[in-house]
């Protein structure tokens, strides 16, 4: 069970007594610490952003070194005069024993860190600390135990409160978000969410989806769904998918816009069931897999699989009962179809959009030729999209087949490539060539789209190219690429279309 603490204020019946005493205290408000419980298990950051070494421990050591540096600074009897601003002087007190009037025992048993604090500074930075130290139910404890927060995350929060600095890393950001939520430090929490959004990928999207629901961050939840929908196969086959809770599993399995084959969804559910059996310390048998899946198995749209996928995969998995297997085979073949508990309507998936960058196209007797040279263009977008493939021109001399090697790079790093063939019918239409998986494109960064074609030497080519194209809610910008050795640029050439999901 995970507990999140928040502060609830209510009118105190002792307000009249306080007024009668003539004291100059704050208004008579009583702060009550309440606990919100959730069935979901809080994942540690290291589970979502795995590393080879315990960086969180290194983070604590870094802060401890800063503590030593601060203590060295205050050996000067007039250390206050060394700093011109209150922010700088306040920063000296961060993780510093000087004038510390409270200590925190942070972390679980065996990994506890004792950290100094200053009640006034903490109360100014957090309403929870204010209630803890100055509220009418305040307890005057010199040492406070906080077992549910990681030391590195607690120090990151203190650094923000004392120094007005946000110090996040992939290894501590989730735990820091938990601490910021617990102690109601909203600006730090927002920075954590922004960090997670920029670090979001198919590998961690499913786990972050679970955590975003736990932390009640709807914007992060929406970003997770965008990645899971567009890169469904990569997300469902990631290690993180097996770590999600049952509620998140069900929400993914019933998702209408998953952009993948149903056999991929089925195999992912079996992988999750295998991991769940291990978590429950039971044998990973077919019966137990079916048991831990429960009713979630009926969210898999097995009747919409290709017949080969069902016959060679789901039907032989052992997870389905004999009756279910027979009924699904009849569903595929019989005129009078049996009723099934499984959904039989295919998922809608995502509809690809096309960004067309030319206003016209043409052909000439001496161009466009292909002799192993590269056609390339650079582009940038103003919001995250997923490039699924390119639209390419075909032969201007009747029908022809082309071999196309397509690539997508960012600052020279290869993000996606594919080698495939397409058939052109001699028209000026564009013909799609797809990547194996959609490639995630981040905003405000230029990417390089390239193709090397082999086929009929003469083809159509684009003219009157545009440097900026608006496609729905996404704006594309184009510029010439130094990788282009066959003449393609902004004004004309190949790669007339980018096919994408948004």
Characterize this entry briefly.
The protein has 502 residues and is of the alpha+beta class. The chain contains 17 helices and 17 strands.
CATH architecture of the largest domain: Sandwich
H/I helix tally: 17
Tell me the domain tally. Answer: 3
Helix residue percentage: 25-40%
Overall pLDDT score: 86
> What's the overall geometry?
flat
Helix/strand/pairing category? alpha+beta
In total, the number of strands is: 17
Could you say what the CATH topology of the largest domain is called? Jelly Rolls
Biggest sheet overview: 6 strands, antiparallel
Strand order of the largest sheet: 11-10-13-8-16-15
Radius of gyration: 30 Å
CATH class term of the largest domain: Mainly Beta
Which segments are poorly predicted (pLDDT under 50) over 5 or more consecutive residues?
Answer: 1-42, 49-55
Beta-strand content bin = 15-25%
CATH H-level name of the largest domain... which superfamily?
Answer: PHR domain
How far is the N terminus from the C terminus? 36 Å
Protein name: BTB domain containing 3
Organism: Takifugu rubripes
GO cellular component, one term: cytosol
Subunit structure: Interacts with cul3. Interacts (via BTB domain) with zbtb16/plzf.
